[in-house]
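Thread amino acids onto this structure.
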């Protein structure tokens, strides 16, 4: 299962389970009482550091970056679904997300083309 840590200056604010992940961001389930930790003194949502733990074809991997809360919807009396949009992600993050989403290994198309040309020569 994929998990996310939402942090601020290396302090873990909340830990949640990923429901859905896309190249734009992700959705996770959080306890309703944890939502106050994501807001600043003025009540606005903070810019968050994030760490995603995903399963790729080579095993578990972590992706680090930052993002911001895009939307919140209540799922039950105690749970809410939070949508976070990515800001910046570390290098190779989108490849790792693709590997998490697809059942087949993801490869670089330029490398595949050059390997095919070398086999045909």
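Threaded sequence (121 positions):
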């Amino acid at each position: 299962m994929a998990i996310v840590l939402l942090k601020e200056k290396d302090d873990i604010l909340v830990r949640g389970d990923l429901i859905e992940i896309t190249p734009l961001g992700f959705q996770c389930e959080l306890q309703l009482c944890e939502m106050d930790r994501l807001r600043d003194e003025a009540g606005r949502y903070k810019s968050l550091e994030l760490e995603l733990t995903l399963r790729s074809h080579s095993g578990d991997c972590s992706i680090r970056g930052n993002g911001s809360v895009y939307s919140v919807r209540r799922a039950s009396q105690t749970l809410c679904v939070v949508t976070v949009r990515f800001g910046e992600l570390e290098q190779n993050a989108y490849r790792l997300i693709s590997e998490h989403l697809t059942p087949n290994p993801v490869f670089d198309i330029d490398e595949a083309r050059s390997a095919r040309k070398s086999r045909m020569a």
